[in-house]
Write a structure and sequence with these properties.
Radius of gyration of chain A: 30 Å
Distance between the termini of chain A: 26 Å
Shape of chain A: elongated
Oligomer: heterodimer
Radius of gyration of chain B: 21 Å
Strand content of chain A: under 5%
Strand order of the largest sheet of chain A: 1-2
Largest sheet of chain B: 10 strands, mixed
Strand content of chain B: 15-25%
Number of helices of chain A: 20
Number of strands of chain A: 2
Order of helices and strands of chain A: HHHHHHHHHHEEHHHHHHHHHH
Order of helices and strands of chain B: HHEHEHEHEEHHEHEHEHHEHEH
Largest sheet of chain A: 2 strands, antiparallel
Structural class of chain A: mainly alpha
Chain lengths: 411, 371
């Protein structure tokens, strides 16, 4: 904290040159700042808004909302609600936005879309009573249908977040009432857990493979170093798609790995192991793609480790293993942790790799976000999933910051 | 345009305007890629461009997702999109397509027939019918040299035909096939699904899951129509669902050891639609008129055996066999509408899919993520 007096003194004594420097400094940063605002902050805010926004549907159901104001939710509402709902249906049909209403209601309760479609084909001569509606489809006499409609009359809803955790509102008239979805509709918890598991596995694999590589790099000199470093960096300069495609060629049924295994007589030709289009392939290819992120931070830290300390430990009688565990490893741990958390964060958002090599068992939460955005167009759910993903990544980034080697330590 | 000049009594100014528009036509056409899109590009795309127009071809993998997001975000890039009946029904009802007067974009047949030349009724006021194709499955002949799969149930029979199966990453065809193989009579499939709702879908998914978990089975999911023949040819799968013309293409062009099973085929109907707010609406109509003209739509069949909706085009092909790119393959037997291919077939339940695809997709995604 700087006191006011000090701040004023600082202003008076600061030269125009210094102030100009800060302005120029800001100008240099301006393109980046603009990009971040336009392509990060604005979309993020939009995600978050999308994930709770239900104004459009609430508006379309305005009459129904009024009729259901005092509904207790214990039984199917009376004819007044049916009449109000019918008025909303007729108005939305005339506006030409009924298909959208049906599609959106379907996010609240599977089957609503077909129910609305079925009903509006008869809505011109449909009597606005429960009996008439039930004659069209028995689901109109189902409490679930009306609970979904009641829920859809709120302008802001937590439902997408519930959905993202395989939960749903049990009783829309209560303040808080959450229940777990039926088994057959659960998707996201499975995917969250799988994504966490894959991220941890990838961190483990990358660290296990990356640590010795980083150690070699930190001791290599001259040509050996240049070649080894080139091998670590080469994948960075190769397009991601090309790298994934080459793994497909390696892993597929008639691919290189399987053919070698068969040629060596290790596996039977008729029973080639499935190593593509599953979780295994996702973990392997992601580990390969992210390996440099484990090597480089670890290497940077290892470069600063004084070799004399390790020698000193040996001289003082420690076994090489003990010297490694108590002297070398603790000093390199910040690099390992930094790399590990970076990989964890990056794995969490992976989409393309699991899409191309993962098959159903190897797909991750990113694939479901993409599905909800581009295929099912459930932008609310996609927004909720993306926001939650962001929170996990932000938490990991905070941990990363805490364990990262600080620049001051260098001097 | 010349004929218009001779026939019409329109003013010279109007003619100049319309002629100018036609010559400079630029249109963005999005189709389904692979051999199918090639048939469109070679069948009439090149001829249309030769006439001084410009076509920007795009590829997508079907479905309404991309189309909806273009229209809803107000950023429409595509003009004409190739689409099946069910999706065109949904989109037309949602108002994301332009309503097109069929007569306006129908070039009369050689015998003068207009919209009557269409053998099939258009599914809605937006769609312009093009060709008929089939959802079938095919197998690798080298894997099963002795006994060969012949019926739809063989796709699920891992005891007789062990090996992995390719299947589309969306539920269409998979649900129908599973029910057929599970004993629901082909002609009753959609009635059964409609009457039994979730239970029927669960029955189909259980059948598919059993196939996936079978030690001798296993499902491999494909996305684009070009993948099934490739998966089969590479030996990644022993059987795969797919689109009839794509299998034909692999057999005729590349000599792939692939054989199609027509039993239980699902006949589907393909259309062009124009997106609401399309940047080149007039050019789009001009393109549609050109593309669906008898001679032009018939030309596409040389490159992929998909039967045209227009009777006159079908007649022309049958009268001029062999109507194929290599000049020797008869295309008749490969058409979805060939009598031999229609012994046990189903017409795609556009109404069923239109009404239920949202809930089935949701169920499918949950099912798939648990495999």
């Amino acid at each position: 904290m700087v006191s006011t007096t000090n701040a004023l003194t600082y202003l008076k004594t600061s030269s125009w040159r210094m102030r100009r420097t800060s302005v120029v400094g800001f100008m240099l940063m301006a393109p980046l700042a603009l990009l971040i605002v336009l392509f990060l902050i604005v979309p993020l805010v939009r995600f978050v808004v999308l994930s709770v926004d239900n104004r459009e549907i609430a508006q379309a159901l305005s009459q129904t909302a009024a009729a259901l104001e005092t509904w207790q939710g214990a039984d199917v509402p009376g004819d007044a609600a049916f009449a109000a709902f019918n008025r909303d249906l007729v108005r939305e049909t005339e506006k030409g936005s009924i298909a959208k209403l049906g599609a959106r209601l379907n996010f609240f309760q599977g089957g609503m879309n077909s129910l609305i479609r079925k009903t509006i084909t008869r809505s011109s001569d449909l009597e606005p009573t429960r009996t008439a509606f039930e004659a069209v489809d028995k689901r109109w006499g189902d409490l679930k249908t009306w609970r979904a409609i009641k829920l859809a009359t709120n302008p802001a809803i937590p439902e997408y977040y519930f959905n993202a955790l395989d939960l749903r509102t049990a009783d829309p008239t209560a303040m808080v009432s959450v229940e777990v979805k039926p088994e057959a509709q659960r998707v996201y918890m499975r995917l969250w857990l799988r994504t966490i598991l894959v991220a941890l596995l990838v961190v483990f694999v990358c660290t296990a493979i990356g640590y010795p590589i980083a150690y070699y790099l930190s001791n290599a000199r001259g040509l050996a170093f240049a070649v080894a470093m080139g091998m670590v960096l080469l994948p960075f300069w190769t397009p991601l798609l090309a790298r994934i495609a080459s793994w497909v060629i390696l892993l597929e049924n008639g691919g290189v790995i399987n053919s070698v295994l068969v040629a060596l007589g290790l596996v039977d030709d008729a029973n080639r192991p499935q190593i593509l289009h599953n979780l295994f392939a996702t973990v392997v290819v992601m580990s390969y793609v992210l390996l440099p992120y484990a090597v480089l931070p670890t290497y940077a830290v290892m470069k600063r480790v004084q070799p004399s300390l390790f020698k000193a430990a040996l001289t003082l009688g420690a076994t090489p293993l003990r010297a490694f565990l108590t002297v070398y490893l603790p000093q390199t741990l910040p690099g390992v942790l930094a790399g590990g958390i970076l990989i964890f964060v990056l794995s969490f958002g992976f989409y393309l790799t699991p899409e191309l090599v993962g098959g159903p068992s190897g797909s991750l939460i990113g694939n479901l976000i993409a599905y909800n955005f581009s295929k099912s167009l459930n932008w609310g759910l996609a927004g909720a999933l993306a926001t939650m993903l962001l929170l996990v990544i932000a938490a990991a980034a905070l941990v990363l910051r805490a364990v990262s080697p600080q620049p001051e330590q260098e001097s | 345009m010349t004929r218009n000049f001779l026939l019409s009594s329109a003013s010279a100014a109007l003619l100049a305007a319309s002629a100018g528009g036609a010559v400079a036509a630029e249109v963005n056409v999005t189709s389904l890629g692979g051999a199918y899109q090639r048939s469109q590009e070679l069948g009439y795309g090149q001829a249309y461009e030769k006439a001084g127009n410009k076509i920007n071809w795009n590829v997508y993998s079907g479905g309404l997702g991309e189309v909806r997001s273009q229209v809803e975000s107000g950023n429409v890039i595509w003009d004409v999109v190739d689409m099946n009946n069910a999706d065109s029904n949904i989109g037309c009802a949602e108002g994301i397509f332009e309503k097109i007067d069929l007569a306006e974009v129908t070039e009369p047949a050689p015998d003068g027939a207009g919209v009557d030349d269409y053998l099939i009724k258009r599914p809605n006021d937006c769609a312009i019918g093009t060709v008929i194709y089939s959802w079938t499955y095919a197998y690798n002949k080298q894997v099963f040299p002795a006994e060969k799969p012949t019926v739809v149930a063989d796709y699920f029979d891992t005891a007789k035909f062990p090996g992995k199966r390719g299947i589309w990453s969306s539920p269409t065809q998979a649900i129908e096939m599973a029910l057929m193989a599970d004993g629901v009579p082909t002609k009753d499939i959609y009635d059964y699904l409609e009457e039994n709702g979730e239970e029927a879908v669960d029955r189909a998914l259980a059948k598919l899951k059993a196939l996936h978990e079978d030690r001798n089975g296993g499902l491999v999911f494909w996305n684009g129509g070009a993948e099934p023949p490739e998966l089969l040819a590479k030996g990644e799968v022993v059987m795969s669902t797919g689109w009839s013309g794509r299998f034909y293409d692999a057999v005729v062009k590349e000599g792939a050891p692939i054989e199609q099973v027509w039993d239980g085929q699902i006949m589907d109907f393909q259309n062009f639609v124009v997106l609401k707010g399309a940047p080149h609406l007039d050019s789009a109509k001009d393109f549609l008129r050109f593309a669906t003209a008898t001679d032009n739509i018939a030309e596409t069949v040389r490159y992929i055996p998909y039967a045209p909706w227009r009777k006159s085009a079908g007649d022309k092909i049958m009268a001029n066999e062999p109507w194929s790119e290599d000049g020797k393959t008869m295309v008749g037997p490969y058409l979805s509408t060939a009598p031999a291919n229609m012994t046990n077939y189903l017409e795609m339940g556009s109404d069923y899919w239109q009404n239920h695809q949202d809930e089935i997709n949701e169920r499918w995604i949950a099912w798939k993520s648990g495999l």
